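Why show two proteins at once? Because comparison is the fastest way to build intuition. When a single record is shown, students tend to memorize it. When two are placed side by side, the eye starts asking what differs. So, the first record is below.
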Amino acid sequence: MRRIDLMRRLAGMLGDEAVIGGIGNTNFDLYAAGHRPLNFYMLGSMGLAFPIALGVALAQPQRRVIGIEGDGSLLMNLGCLATIATVAPVNLTLIVLDNASYQITGGQPSASAAKTDLVAVARGAGIARSDWSQDPDEFSRLLGEALRSEGPSLIGTRIDGAPAAGQPARDPAQIRDRFMQAMGTRKEFGVE
């Protein structure tokens, strides 16, 4: 499946959900699919999209939160799955985009290229609702179910290695302030 096509499907299903996009092509295609203030684009923090999504889900339990991570980034911080399963926020959906490589650092194979099944790891960590989507329609169905159900949920999707379709501005303060304002935690940019 193509990452940009999946991000476009996601963008078409969003309302007031907060979306945390992992580093690199994951957030580049999230941005290209439909930039919105409730999207938080990670910069240089490999493996932290799911932990940040967990924090947002706990801080705003009335809001649905989606974390999107690549396989390489998730492999950098597998322990977050056990924490998420233990805390079990009902408003959290996780998406793993698995191209079996560390694409933005040169395309080195990740462990998922060999034997590691990230959905099985998530189930083993205790996230019972963890499934692979086999095609774009199943991705949309699983995402819709996750957004209507009590989570946490994890959706794994195998994707191709296509280059990113776009890229957000790489200004951490601007990304943070825009997101916090959209979340209702700042009245105006730069003022708490």
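Second record. Ask yourself what differs from the first in the token line.
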Amino acid sequence: MATRQRATRKAAPPSATLSKADLLDIYRLMLLSRRIDDKEIQLKRQNKIFFQISGAGHEAVLVAAGKVLRPGYDWFYPYYRDRAICLALGMTPTEMFLAAVGAADDPNSGGRQMPSHWGHKQLNIVSQSSPTGTQFLQAVGCAEAWLRYSRNEGITEKPIHGDEIVYCSAGDGTTSEGEWWEALNSASNLKLPVLFLIEDNKYAISVPIEVQTAGGSVSKLVRNFPNLLLEEVDGSDPILSYEAVLRAAEWCRQRKGPAIVHAHVTRPYSHSLSDDEILYKPPREREEEAKRDPLTTFPKHLLDEGVATESEIEAIKAQVEEEIQVAADMALASPQPKPETATLWVYSPDVDPTSEQFDTEDDPHFTGEPTTMVDLLNACMKDEMARDPRILVFGQDVADVSREQYLKEVKGKGGVFKVTWGLQRQFGSDRVYNSPLAEANIVGRAIGLATRGLKPVVEIQFFDYIWPAYHQLRNELATMRWRSSNAFSAPVVVRVTYGGYLKGGSVYHSQTGAVIFTSVPGLRVICPATALDANGLLRTAIRCDDPVLFLEHKHLYRQTYNKAPNPGPNFMIPFGKARVVREGTGLSVIAYGAVVQRALVAAKELEEKDGVSVEVIDLRSLAPVDWETIETSIRKTNKVIVAYEDAHSWGYGAEIAARIADQCFAWLDAPVKRVASTDTFVGYAPDLEDYILPQVEDLAQAMRELHAF
């Protein structure tokens, strides 16, 4: 642990490391940032832009940080008050106003995000989202990319410099988020070069620091993290801030670990134009804050110390005003995005996992005896890791053993279901490793790693516990490409065990809920029902360029009825390609996961006892869906059942049924019927579980009723 006391200065001379030109440029950038804020506020009141949130009061430490750090070399995860550092790194006022007006040429997001949601590919400013705190774990993953690349001899061209660092900023309120502590834990534990800047203006909208943070200071709470340098500084003083950030950056560049710069700043404007701080800040507090405003104190300091003259200060002001007016005029004249471009970049424009490129299903090269889904998933990952050294596998318990010295003494864990068994032993601990017990940590770090060109294949141990990661999955992973207008992407594969039929799984080891993820644009959702399909679909997931949620049904892991031989290292099944697992003419059943086998058994029973021919379709891919196969079957049979393990109401099958009614109504001779779980949770007692989950007899009864309609 390394710490440094809070730095303060009373009329000290300018820093010896900063020249007059540097100091004047710092003032220019600070003023430029403030005046852009002011111009945006004016434009908002004129209804020429649609939202405004300022960085006022934060300019000094941010410009200082921009002077220390290296655009296009270091990596940046800013937050919405970080206008000044973006200017210091090289973003132009025109680019900022383009964001404010939502212009097509906005480099931050192409008009897809609010202004002050920074992103710039050339400067390595990674697309920022609105949720506070989600950037912490992604920044850790981005910094971890240096570690993984540096230790991976299989990658010859490594996109790293060796001393780059990752900047990540947030407000004091954001340190209340759990992901802040998860990020500090991993960054300190792995000695990652992350420079965290906490811009402490003492308020999170209207909630003051003493309500947010125990003891009123995050610095006091983090001092015991190992390998962490802590710098506490007056963030309204650009010279002290420069020196503090410089020390923190050098600590990170020397690979000693992460650093925190806790900068005390002011917030002279309300949180945003949607907020009015007069409602919760009394005049005396606002007056005291105004005395620390760096746009007042710093030019006065330059004049008092003889660094600048009045005429030089006035010249800078005039230059800034002219620059802002020209930039605003250019942005206001820029065209808006064409409406039809809204559908671009939800998924990769270059790699289509539904295409023939990913269809080798008709040409398997089988070897060995039929084996289980667990074994064929494991075989796929071994093949793919041997093919592509960029692939990393991590999650809770996925390694054989975290203490490498034990590898010769123990058989190894390899996941609670053994899916990843032997991967660490074969590919090493830098490519297969355990994570903390923190689902958001797993997915957030994976996003950062993928942004740097690595290919994380991560595991969430149980679907029941995926919810802490939902923020990262929904708001970050799925949106990255779209919200950045294809500037950034994060093709992560998230494997997760799924479903019930376990005998004893109960409420917290039997959950389904695919619909919660299939409703998220930008996310591919896959659920194989056989060992062969699992192998081919996982290979497609790994090779495609989109984020994939890969659902592995626990009940199907070791069933004998779904075994297959190893189909070879190039066996792939495209997404959006269902499989007709049983031909029929009397009615169609659309299913996926563990319900497929139950539908097959029920269909066989119906044919033998009632003479009814039932067609069964295994969707395999839940998003995208093979509507062509569904429509072809319905045109033939004219009656359809949608069978699924989610709850009956609001479940995945409800959308399938609705779309069938919309698109296939002309061919239906009966209403669309659904068979699903009861609208409850899954119980522990076997009789409860059997009643709750759809069984063969439930499906057979539904088939009889539909056939008789």
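One difference worth noting in the second protein: Confidence is low (pLDDT under 50) at residues 9-13.
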